[in-house]
From TrEMBL, chain A:
Domain ABC transmembrane type-1: 95-305
Coiled coil: none
Keyword field contains Membrane: yes
Lineage: Bacteria, Bacillati, Bacillota, Bacilli, Lactobacillales
Biological source species: Levilactobacillus fujinensis
Entries under InterPro entries matching the protein: BPD_transp_1_N (IPR045621), MetI-like (IPR000515), MetI-like_sf (IPR035906)
Superkingdom of origin: Bacteria
Pfam families noted in UniProt: BPD_transp_1, BPD_transp_1_N
Protein name as it appears in the record: ABC transporter permease
From TrEMBL, chain B:
Topological category with respect to the lipid bilayer: Multi-pass membrane protein
Keyword Mitochondrion on entry: no
Compartments, as annotated in UniProt: Cell membrane
InterPro entries: BP-dependent_transpt_permease, MetI-like, MetI-like_sf, OppC_N
Provenance organism: Levilactobacillus fujinensis
Family recorded in the similarity comment: Belongs to the binding-protein-dependent transport system permease family.
Protein name listed in UniProt: ABC transporter permease
Length: 319, 316
């Protein structure tokens, strides 16, 4: 068990190193130099050269990379040129919004997907199953951003049920109102995100339940006289719960990657919107930091899923 | 052979012909025939097929008759004309440009990129999966680590960063940038099927008789999983429509003067456009919904055709 996890973590180390090199080189390849916007445009070119020299920008790339990594471990990601403040502080201010939204979406995803999966499997081939399968088919193939745009149009503008911009309303006073307003703002993007990311879990759980229906332990439970409801709730559902839990890691990754679209459509000030804005302003210290953070979060998400899977499924451990 | 057979048997030529005919009638129908039967049995699938093929042919030909630079010229007199006024079927946008014409050219661009992306990324993904699954061992291990690494990259962000780095990009370079990141799903699927296929007897027989590895992979295993490949290509085509339009929606896909379904939906980013001037973006959004649903439905029918136990078509 521990050996598998250790091996899995060991594989991560070169991945992180290659990711950081890649991100660093991409940052180097971006147009403009790091002094754009921070100094007077009439400044003496000789002085700029001097600045480049003392900041180590004329060193070979591996030297610069090493300095960058050392700074990274000191929590120093440089300054944002657009906002004129440290990148770490800027991102820390936005990360909360993104993570709350992703967290809310994920809880909702599970709350919707678990009953639907069991229900569809239980009534295989009947009306509820047909309806749920139609729902998964629709949500699987429509691009997420189209749904967001249609959703904000219908529920945000036409019906006016939900706020269409920001993460908290400006006239909220006291912490109760503030928390309430925050929640109100993540409600629509959270629901849309959840509705459209249940597919994998529903389909997996459905086929799992259909398989389990004909298995020996279910037949035993039936012959003992366990009520049908309890069989589904306690026997079958509990058995397929852990593999379902393994989807959590992947679903975090999916939600984070979707956050670029969600936050752009809803003008929600999180890391995704920060990324899009920074690209427009060529604010490349922020861009590299965000790509690195999202890469690491993806890595942790898949690590989490793989570990849960290896606990559940011993076959993976032998490999 | 047949003459030889005739001399040594007491079956008459007429009987032989009849038996041949019966055998042919009872033989497994060809893949194309199975798929066609499946579509005939499923009316909505037929409708989806007609919509998709008809629409693609329509925009491909229609776009040839539209002068794009002239269409993209601003004409302030037609500022936000309503649908069905001043000769605009679907109205005009903020620059007085016809929405219907933009929709045709934009669909051509978006669908063209989606087709290109599907061809490139699927070819690469299939080759990757076949090689990785067939050779197993160290080659597979190494290729899997590359796969893991690619999966870890935040795809949308990487594409946006690459698009900003490349100074002059067009639809071809854009397709290649997308292709770098969208082969993983296919490769994983093909690899797992190849792993199972490699265990089968016909592969073992070919190996012992000394057939070339590449011949086994591409001439023996690949045709055997061709139904899976067809299904996967169809489904990734539906997904790939969302890739380019999504990026164009954010403003990092096709450049501004090149209409795309995504840039048209981006009209909805303006709070006054989204409600007041809904005709500038809603047709494009609905078009994507209909296209994606239809293509993915076709994919499901193909999947059913590939699995004999799920077929609905008559087994004639």
């Amino acid at each position: 068990m521990w050996k598998t996890i250790l091996r899995r973590v060991m594989i991560m180390v070169p991945e992180v190193i290659i990711l950081s090199i890649l991100v660093f080189l991409l940052a180097k390849a971006m147009p403009g130099d790091p002094f754009t916007g921070s100094i007077n445009p009439k400044a003496d070119p000789a002085q700029i050269k001097h600045l480049m020299a003392i900041n180590g920008l004329n060193d070979p790339w591996y030297q610069q990379y090493w300095n960058w990594v050392v700074h990274l471990f000191h929590g120093n990601l440089g300054n944002s040129y657009q906002y004129q403040e440290p990148v770490t502080r800027l991102i820390a201010g936005r990360a909360g919004n993104t993570l709350w939204l992703a967290f809310f979406s994920m809880i909702l995803t599970y709350a919707l997907a678990l009953p639907m999966g069991v229900f569809a499997g239980r009534h295989e081939g009947k009306l509820p199953d047909v309806v749920i399968r139609f729902y998964t088919y629709v949500t699987y193939c429509i691009p997420f951003f189209v749904i967001l745009v249609l959703g904000i149009w219908i529920f945000g503008y036409v019906l006016g049920w939900f706020p269409t911009t920001g993460s908290v309303s400006s006239d909220a006073q006291g912490w109760v109102q503030t928390v309430g307003s925050h929640f109100y703002h993540i409600l629509l993007p959270g629901i849309l995100g959840a509705l459209f990311s249940t597919v994998n879990i529903v389909q997996y759980l459905r086929s799992e339940v259909i398989d389990a229906k004909h298995s020996d332990y279910v037949r035993t439970a039936r012959s003992k006289g366990v009520p049908s409801k309890d069989i589904y709730r306690h026997h079958i559902f509990r058995n397929s719960l852990l593999p379902i839990a393994a989807f959590a890691g992947y679903s975090i990754t999916g939600l984070l990657n979707g956050s670029i679209f969600t936050e752009t459509v809803f003008s929600y000030p999180g890391m995704g919107l920060l990324f899009v804005n920074s690209i427009s302003y060529r604010d490349y210290t922020v861009i590299t930091a965000l790509v690195l953070i999202f890469g690491l979060l993806n890595l942790l998400g898949t690590l989490l899923s793989d570990i849960i899977l290896s606990i559940v499924d011993p076959r993976i451990r032998i490999e | 052979m047949a003459e030889n057979f005739e001399q040594h048997s007491d079956i008459s030529a007429a009987d032989l012909a009849r038996l041949n005919q019966e055998a042919q009638a009872e033989a497994t129908p060809s893949t194309a025939k199975i798929i066609w039967n499946e579509f005939k049995a499923d009316k909505p699938a037929m409708a989806a097929l007609i919509i998709v093929v008809g629409f693609i042919v329509f925009v491909m030909i229609g776009a040839l008759f539209i002068n794009t630079p002239k269409m993209m010229e601003t004409n302030i007199m037609d500022y936000f004309d309503k649908p069905f006024t001043a000769g605009f079927w679907l109205g005009a946008d903020s620059g007085g440009r016809s929405v219907a014409k933009q929709l045709i050219v934009g669909s051509r661009n978006s669908i063209g990129i989606a087709i290109g992306l599907t061809v490139i990324s699927s070819t690469f993904g299939i080759a990757w999966g076949l090689i990785s699954g067939y050779f197993s061992g160290y080659i597979d291990w190494g290729m899997q680590r590359v796969y893991d690494f690619m999966m870890m990259l935040p795809m949308t962000m990487m594409i946006i960063v690459l698009v900003t780095i490349i100074p002059h990009y067009n639809s071809v370079s854009l397709t290649f940038i997308f292709s770098i990141f969208y082969w993983e799903g296919t490769s994983r699927l093909i690899r797992s099927r190849t792993l199972a296929e490699t265990q089968k007897d016909y592969v073992a027989a070919s190996k012992t008789s000394g057939t070339n590895h590449w011949k086994i992979i591409f001439k023996e295993i690949m045709p055997n999983i061709s139904s899976l490949i067809i299904v996967d290509c169809t489904l990734s085509f539906a997904e790939n429509i969302g890739v380019e339009t999504g990026l164009s929606y954010l403003g990092f896909g096709l450049p501004n003067q090149t209409p795309s379904l995504g840039t048209m939906i981006a009209n909805a980013n303006d709070p006054s456009n989204i409600t007041l001037y809904w005709w500038t973006w809603l047709p494009a959004a609905l078009e994507i919904v209909v296209l994606c649903l239809s293509i993915s439905y076709i994919g499901q029918v193909l999947r059913r055709a590939a699995d004999a136990s799920q077929r609905q078509g008559a087994a004639d």
